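EI: anyone free to look at a 322-residue chain?
SC: sure, send it
EI:
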Amino acid sequence: MKSWYIVSSATDTALELRDVPVPEPKAGEILAKVKVAGLNRGEFIAGHGLSGSGAKQAGIESAGEVVKLGEGVEGWKPGDRVMGRSYGGYSEYAIHRIGDAIRVPDKLSWEEAAGAGITYLTAYDMLWPGGELKAGEWLLVTGASSGVGVASVQLGKLIGAKVAGTSGSADKLKRLTALGMDLALPHRNGGFEKALMAATGGKGVNVVVNNVGGSVFGECIRCMAYKGRLATVGYVDGVVKAELDILALHSRRLKLYGVSNKMRTAAEIAEGVAGYTRDVLPAIASGHIKPVIDKVFPFAELPAAKAHMEASGHLGKIVLKS
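SC: here you go
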């Protein structure tokens, strides 16, 4: 089968299309014929930790049709539609661990299924068990036009929060407002503190989703309310170090946490999938929340899809169609 590989160095990542054998599902695994796969920026960032060094089969999220079951897998059969975290998603066939596998709702297209997985699972992790966001609270999403950013805006509104988001694009902010975002902040790399504090009556925000990185970390801290919670999920600005106002951390009883699956066990990841399936998937299945798909690229054009993502002109998910 055809399969894309990421070849990583300390400073860059390149893509190679290879011919490899179709994988055989092991115990607790599902083999699926890939229909569509979703792009996730972290996988392509050199040194981010998702790709490592050397060559690695690419694609951590896909949607497709079940073709074969590993030993011990129950409740699935060939022909079922499956989506979510996968291994070798940018291939003709991919593997899903049973704890990662999510049944595709009937109303979702293949493209939407490929965009309804990791970004929403990540947003769920930040806003439910991580941030414990509640109705009526304020949520700030920096870099709100990214896949995780859009999902965070949508899930914040699902909870009933008031949502503010930053972007350097007026067009993107307009489209995010149409998704329910309450406060549009036209700031790519900071400068939103005054407007945000005014909107919250000087109290600050209860939860922050920081997709941007260290360049806005200090300002996010300054915008946080008493007992505020800050999730760091990305650093597209490349800034991985920032000063921490320990007095603010102490006096306002702030909670700071990172969001990454790198060191989580399979059981921990499966627990998050179960929570997402319970708390979020029904809203997607009913059409109340629609995954936002920016652009669909053919399977052979993964390099162009990667370039489109790295140009940061997209809003929502970029997907690759077989």
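EI: The chain is about 25% helix and 30% strand.
SC: 👍
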